[in-house]
Every structure is written in structure tokens, then in C-alpha cells.
Amino acid sequence: MNKTSIHERPLVTILMNENIAKSLSDPHRLKILDFLYHRNLSTRNLFDLLKKAKYDIAMTTLRHHILILKKNGLISIQRKEEVKGKLVKYYKSNVKMLVYENFPFVTFARDSKEIVNLLYPKLYKVIKKIIINEKDLISTILSDVKSRCKICRTYHYAEFLLFMVFNMVIAKVLRKLLKTVLSPTV
Length: 186
Description:
single chain, disordered N terminus
């Protein structure tokens, strides 16, 4: 097993392009994604929540932000319903945004080095076992991956796809475990 320093590689990998970066560059859009992750909301619901959260925004500007997020696949329409003769669209987030103001990332990474180094060998064994035992599943996920990085000869897209699948599974597991572990017993 190759030991690597916490500072050798980024801790988080996301597929990014110029349009996604521009979409995420506005604090209103980040807040919209955060609201939509927790529940499906209409434009009116979002407008009201943004106002309560002290975001000064016009309804036309909100619609513009929704259009940009939708165009870049970050949100989608979950359902439509007719309310008082008007079609109301309810949006959902297609991504989980963890947005924290003034989060001390460098300090956190440095202070968590011991925890990362402790968990790395355990997770390495679990993930290796999954990849070996679930070859058909892994092959399905990686079926379109063909190109290697010309610099390091790694299949970055395969790495990204597996990261996304594991990330979704881990997020689901953590959500369930944290609800049971952190919920007060009645």
C-alpha cells in the first residue's frame, strides 16, 4: 500500500467545466442549491426562503439563477402542479453542496491528518474488496472509459466515476447512521 501525504492530492474531486464554475460562482446560486437539496421548492418558495435568509434578490433575478442552474444540470424539475389556474414547477437539486462560510480548509486538513492516516488503510481494504468482488458492477460503471492521462497514465475519468458512486453511497450511509447515532433516544 502506497503511503501518501494528505497534501499530495486534493481531498475533494469534482467534475468541473467553465459553465459549472460560473454557475457556482454566485452566492445566491449556492444558497438555492442548498435549499433545493433539503426539499423540492417552487420559485415562490425559494424567493421567500432567500428573503428570510437576508438575500436581497428580485424575482426576475431568481428566475435567471434557476435557469442557469437548470441549464447546467445542477437542478431539475421534480414535479409540476396546477395551483389556482397557474402551473407551478417544483425544483430539486441534482448535487449536494456543502457550503460553509469561512471554513478553515487548510487548518482542517492539517489537523485531520492523523484521522485520515488512521482511516486510510481500513477504507483501502474495504474499497479494494468491493472492486475485486464486484467486477461486473465496476465494469458496468467503467464501460465507456478508455483514455489515460498522458502525464501520469491514470484513468482519471474512471477515478472520477468511481469517486462519484462511492461518494453517493457514503453520503447515503452517513445520513442514515448520523440520524440514528445523533438522534436523542426517546
